[in-house]
Design brief:
This protein is α/β, with parallel strands linked by helices. Helices cover 26% and strands 24% of the residues. It has helices at residues 120-123, 128-136, 165-168, 194-220, 232-236, 238-241, 254-267, 283-286, 308-313, 316-324, 328-334, 352-361, 366-373, 375-380; strands spanning 32-43, 46-56, 59-65, 74-77, 82-85, 87-92, 139-144, 151-159, 169-179, 247-250, 271-274, 293-296, 340-342, 398-402, 411-417, 420-423, 435-438, 446-449.
């Protein structure tokens, strides 16, 4: 005798406006949901107990205490759970490490480390596993940043759902990305030092300014003389050198932050900074600055002091960094420095929530922690009217938690992205307990209690 008991649950998705023809049967589901009875953190420091959230077509239709679920909505009983706004990663690593096959083609730049022409929008990879890993940590939206080269190309804001690539891009090519570490797989012997890297950055900024003016003069003349050279990389930097497009500098140390800030001031660019996690060392420098600062939670491992010889080799600087790095977010908040938090820089995304909880245990308030993952990045990414809080009219990006998300006992149960639910550690939605009549192909059956 053999039998299979199959329990299935459906997932409804909102319908987006599309130009691509539908192959097969069109899904006309409304994505109409009522999340009932949860503790809802609508914004940092703002809580509604026993609230209901109504979602329709990917947007929040209402959130209130004692609201009755509207007729026709799928009701989710979330009593005893807590709902937060979906997290926003302002510097995500999402399938942008690989160099495109075939290398650079066309009139790009004489130095392969200058890839400002590269667009994440045009090269966004369908990295489903990475998106699922980010969702498991509470993220529903991310600024995807390219990682190759010194001038790395444009970063784009995407949602982290499993819809098609075209549906996921929210703000294409929002910012240029730069870093101080060259990518050896791109080739080229220059630059091979920090001094050479800074020289290349300065020269490229000046070249981009010249390129813009040279082509402007050529067009203004009615094309009366030979055109300047064509460079996709320099053309792509036009908005950035005019201060109309942000540049996100990835900095690996406090020294690199200081160099990037000086460079940005010299050339008048709108700079954002992905920090090193060592910002506690330069609090006096950062205090009073308003440039967007995005910090990782990649805390150093404890030095090995298991035996006398290893203990002698552990430097005071290593011990101090191990002890103080987890306090960096709290120290920044205490100094009045506004910052966002990123998952970038971790050896595994599964470290993100544990490290966030360490930062909270070491002094970061839960209100400041949530702001650094929601309202602050939403403001910087131009999403403040659609993301970052739970309120009527905003996109239904939510994190459903069993327990206070900032404590060790909590787990992420579900994450909602644009009104579609993705289970993370959800308990079965169908309770199979009861008395069942089991039938088979034979002439007899039996009853079983579960």
């Amino acid at each position: 005798l053999g039998f299979t008991l199959l329990l299935t649950g459906g997932v409804e998705a909102q319908q987006a406006t599309r130009t691509e023809p539908v192959t097969g049967i069109r899904d006309n589901g409304t994505g109409f949901h009522a999340l009932v009875g949860a503790r809802v953190v609508t914004a940092p420091g703002q809580v509604l107990d026993g609230a209901t959230i109504v979602i329709r077509n990917g947007l929040i239709q209402g959130v209130s205490r004692n609201m009755q679920p509207p007729a026709g909505a799928r009701v989710w009983d979330l009593a005893g759970l807590t709902i937060y706004p979906g997290f926003i990663d302002a510097h995500a690593d999402l399938g942008m490490d690989a160099v495109p096959e075939g290398g650079d083609v066309g009139p790009t730049h004489w130095n392969p480390q200058v890839r400002a022409w590269f667009s994440t929008t045009m090269n966004l990879q369908d990295d489903a596993d990475r998106r699922a890993a980010l969702r498991s940590q509470g993220f529903g939206t991310a600024l995807v940043v390219p990682k190759q080269g010194i001038f790395r190309g444009t970063a784009s804001v995407v949602n982290l759902g499993d819809t098609g690539v075209r549906d996921r891009v929210l703000r294409p090519d929002l910012a240029q990305a730069m870093g101080f570490q060259r990518s050896f797989q791109l080739g080229g012997a220059y630059p091979n030092s920090a001094m050479g890297t800074i020289a290349l950055m300065k020269q490229t900024f000046m070249d981009a300014d010249w390129y813009m003016r040279a082509w402007g003069a050529y067009e203004a003349s009615g094309r009366a003389f030979l055109p300047p050279e064509t460079s996709e990389a320099l053309a792509a930097l036009e908005d950035a050198v005019q201060g109309d497009q942000p540049i996100v500098f990835e900095t690996g140390s406090e020294e690199e932050y200081l160099r990037a800030h000086k460079l940005a001031a010299e050339y008048g660019v709108d700079a954002w900074y992905r920090g090193s996690g060592q910002e506690y060392r330069i609090l006096d420098v950062l205090r009073g600055r308003t440039d967007p600062l995005i910090i990782p939670l990649s805390f150093p491992d404890a030095p090995n002091v298991n035996d006398p010889e290893s203990a002698l080799n552990a430097s005071l600087a290593d011990l101090r960094d191990w002890y103080l790095a987890p306090t960096s977010p709290a120290q920044l908040a205490g100094a009045g420095v506004r910052f966002a938090i990123t998952s970038d820089g971790l050896s595994s995304l599964n470290e993100f929530l544990p490290n966030l909880r360490i930062a909270v245990a070491r002094g970061l308030s839960t209100t400041d922690a949530l702001a650094a993952l929601t309202t602050t990045p939403a403001l910087w990414l131009g999403l403040e009217n659609t993301h970052g809080t739970i309120q009527e009219g905003k996109v239904a990006n939510l994190v459903v938690s069993e327990g206070d998300l900032f404590t060790e006992e909590a787990t992420v149960r579900d994450v909602w992205v644009h009104g579609q639910v993705y289970g993370v550690t959800r308990s079965p939605q169908i309770d199979p307990r009861g008395t069942w009549r089991i039938a088979s192909d034979d002439e007899w059956g039996f009853e079983a209690a579960l």
